Amino acid sequence: MRAVVLHEHGGPEKLIVQSVPDPVPGESEVLVQLEAISINHLDLKIRRGTAGYPIALPRILGLEGAGRVVALGSGVTSVEVGQRVLVLPWKRCGECVWCRSGQENLCARSRILGIHADGCYAELVSAHVEQLLPLPNGIASEQAAAIPTAMGTAWHALHAVARVQPGESVLVMAATSGVGVALVQMAHQAGARVIAAGRDPSKLARLSEFGAETTVSYDDPQWIERVRQLTDGLGVDVVFEQVGGALLPAAVRSLRKQGRLVSYGASGGLSVAFEDWQFVYRNEFRILGATSCTREDVRQVLARVCVGELRAVVESRFPLVEASRAHQLLESRAHFGKVVLVPQ
What is the pLDDT of residues 241-250, one digit of tens each? Predict the structure, then answer.
């Protein structure tokens, strides 16, 4: 099969398209012929060597994808050859306190495709049967592939962590990203007033169709004051933040007293400096983390996408052999929504 293989860390040019042996499904594994593969920011970090995971090279990248089952390993009875499936990134241990309590996104023994095993940047992938969800015929593979990491994370952050309530005000940072567009939709459907933040005015303008009441630009030196003006001088109830770096302290200043900041990424940098930490505790802000999502989170999103309640926004598609170009686009932040690869 053809696959995109990382032999050494570096830029997009390190993604090498080559022929490799077809994977053979082992016990409890399933071989899936991929029809669409989602690209995520974690893929970029893996390629650069900054993901924070020990990764044995060479490695086929790719956290998730969608396609059809073409072979079954021993012991597999829950899926059939020919069945359409969504391939999830994570194989959780199923034994720890977090897995037993239904919070398996916190499992410390997760094995992730593209990190601990060869992933989905290929024509075929072998995955544990527990990493699969059946796909109904009403959803295209490209839309399905865009769901787990981006939309699953958004659902988990909004409903399990922030627990947004009707009538609350929500600020979504990096709102034109895959997770951001999903958060705008979900917060709107939860009954919140949504303010979308970003840099590109043309992309921000599109978010009104997904439920954003108004937008603000980081390039406006007064953007925090603008957020306060939009909330009667109080600030927002919730901020969803994935940039980190210098933007995180600014996001905190857009909160109302007792507001919640939910951080689910750090694409802008891991180091954060607060010049005035007492501003945080004197206003009783709550700083919350959200990591990944559960299988049930993905099920909830998939069900809503299938009936049209949510949209999986995919506007950038590349052939598998142009994975390096797809990485360049994601790094440029010129995309809107999700970027996917399509094997040919």
Answer: 987 767 778 8
